[in-house]
């Protein structure tokens, strides 16, 4: 049964009691392993000994032990900006590309834009925001984006997508996507808390979506994410909490509750809630699993399904490649390929990163060394910038005076400045580089292609 309360609170009533009674099944790795008190959570919620679960996962014994020795000093800290993480836990994609994955099911926004029913409009839009969680459950970490790095995407549903890393400390990304039906703007920043064998991730972003037909503006507040068994056991992701999508134009909203994984996996992936009108009356219930599909059904003022109506599917996950090494979807491979790149690709584009490409080719050692080189170049440019008494200036987004208050902290807002649209109009569709796009050297640097080290 879906939650009947309006608003974006902490998920009270039925769900609070359910979350309490179905608390996650947790075990402590005992002293025989030498890691007293370290928490290991079995994703199936089984009763097997924690030692057995701890020995599973992608880590070799020696890698696990050495990484734990390095990481344990950071327990309780925000590790967002750490650059010392080993490449073996990475996927060949950057944070900017990860942002672009939300575009996969953009057909839902076409349906939302064309929809005359304001409640169904919210169903389509909320389903679009839910659809990205299937990709977010991947347990590989994207590369942190270099300051000035960009990602461009075209050739998908008429969308033009541009993302830019606009700040390094703290890491902040900005992105804009647009086609004939919508404009999507986001300033993305995360706050983390490292807990030893798990990581809490708090999304401090501001996400706004404008549907062009009626001009309505929607704003999203997503739930936090918890990554379990980072070092010991099988790594898996949970998103317990509420997602609130508000129509800033009309006051309508969607409140969807992501259930926490409970005993024996109960509730894992499940999400349900309601579309509310501006008077906070439930109009449509939504239910499903964020890793498979979502459905909806009209309801009465008590949140009960209306007689004579059926539960109808609104979204489902597309077929995925079998046995993919990095758990990629077909769309993730498109995001990583030059098939979705425009001609005259910016030299700052994520696809051109040497560390990302080496990892994609399976060369972990080279990926690690190339990652170190890029990070040192970034530090060298920072020293140059400070010596000149200058600040980094993004190309495609401007820092505003607006500050957004989120449940996890304040966020400075970057706004699209229109320059990318002018750039694309100027360069047109003809590739004037007269060069193989795969041979372009990655260059996000403000002061030209800086040396590998001073």
User: How many DSSP H or I helices?
Assistant: 11
The SS-based structural class is alpha+beta
Strand order of the largest sheet: 5-6-7-8-11-12-15-16-17-18-19-20
Number of strands: 22
Overall pLDDT level: 87
Distance between termini?
61 Å
Strand % is 25-35%
Radius of gyration: 23 Å
Secondary structure elements and pairings:
Layout lengths: L13 H8 L5 E2 L10 E2 L9 H5 L6 H11 L18 E5 H6 L6 H8 L3 H14 L1 H4 L4 E3 L6 E4 L6 E8 L4 E7 L3 E7 L1 E5 L3 E6 L2 E6 L5 E5 L3 E4 L7 E3 L2 E7 L5 E6 L11 E7 L5 E8 L3 E6 L13 E5 L13 H7 L17 H7 L3 H24 L9 E10 L2 E8 L2 H9 L27
Parallel strand pairs: 3-4
Antiparallel strand pairs: 1-2, 5-6, 6-7, 7-8, 8-11, 9-10, 10-13, 11-12, 12-15, 13-14, 15-16, 16-17, 17-18, 18-19, 19-20, 21-22
Helix pairs in contact: 5-6, 9-10
What brief labels describe this structure?
four-stranded antiparallel beta sheet; 454 residues; twelve-stranded antiparallel beta sheet; 23% helix; single chain
Could you characterize what this model shows?
The strands form 5 sheets. Strands 5-6-7-8-11-12-15-16-17-18-19-20 form a 12-stranded antiparallel β-sheet. Mean pLDDT is 87; it is low at 5-24 and 431-435. It has 11 helices and 22 strands. The longest helix has 24 residues, at 364-387. The protein has 454 residues and is of the alpha+beta class.
């Amino acid at each position: 049964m879906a939650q009947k309360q309006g608003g974006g609170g902490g998920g009270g009533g039925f769900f609070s009691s359910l979350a309490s009674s179905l608390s996650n099944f947790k075990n402590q790795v005992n002293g025989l392993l030498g890691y007293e008190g370290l928490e290991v959570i079995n994703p199936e919620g089984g009763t097997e000994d924690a030692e057995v679960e701890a020995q599973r996962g992608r880590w070799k014994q020696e890698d696990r032990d050495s990484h734990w020795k390095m990481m344990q000093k950071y327990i309780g800290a925000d590790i967002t900006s750490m650059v010392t993480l080993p490449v073996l836990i990475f996927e060949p994609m950057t944070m900017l590309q990860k942002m672009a994955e939300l575009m996969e099911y953009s057909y839902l926004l076409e349906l939302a834009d064309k929809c005359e029913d304001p409640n169904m409009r919210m169903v389509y839009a909320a389903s679009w925001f839910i659809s990205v969680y299937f990709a977010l459950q991947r347990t590989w970490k994207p590369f942190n984006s270099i300051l000035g790095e960009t990602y461009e995407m075209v050739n998908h549903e008429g969308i033009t997508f541009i993302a830019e890393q606009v700040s390094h400390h703290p890491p902040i990304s900005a992105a804009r996507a647009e086609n004939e039906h919508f404009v999507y703007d986001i300033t993305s920043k995360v706050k983390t808390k490292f807990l030893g064998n798990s990581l809490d991730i708090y999304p401090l972003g501001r996400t706004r979506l404008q549907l062009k037909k009626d001009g309505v503006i929607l704003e999203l507040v997503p739930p936090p994410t918890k990554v379990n068994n980072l070092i010991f056991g099988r790594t898996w992701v949970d998103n317990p909490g509420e997602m609130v999508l508000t129509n800033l134009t009309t006051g309508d909203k969607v409140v969807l509750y992501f259930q926490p994984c409970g005993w024996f996996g109960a509730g894992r992936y499940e999400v349900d809630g309601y579309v509310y009108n501006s008077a906070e009356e439930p109009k449509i219930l939504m239910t499903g699993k964020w890793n498979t599909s979502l459905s909806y059904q009209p309801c009465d003022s008590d949140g009960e399904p209306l007689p004579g109506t059926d539960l109808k599917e609104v979204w489902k996950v597309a077929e995925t490649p079998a046995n993919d090494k990095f758990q990629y979807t077909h769309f993730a491979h498109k995001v990583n390929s030059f098939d979705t790149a425009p001609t005259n690709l910016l030299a700052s584009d994520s696809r051109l990163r040497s560390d990302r490409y080496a990892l994609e080719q399976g060369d972990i050692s080279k990926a690690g060394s190339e990652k170190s080189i890029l990070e040192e170049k970034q530090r060298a440019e920072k020293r140059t910038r400070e010596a000149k008494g200058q600040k980094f200036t993004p190309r495609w987004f401007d820092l505003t005076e607006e500050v957004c208050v989120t449940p996890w902290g304040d966020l400075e807002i970057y706004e699209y400045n229109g320059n990318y649209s002018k750039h694309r109009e100027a360069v047109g569709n003809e590739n004037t580089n007269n060069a193989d796009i795969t041979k372009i050297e990655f260059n996000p640097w403000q002061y030209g292609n800086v040396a590998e080290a001073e």
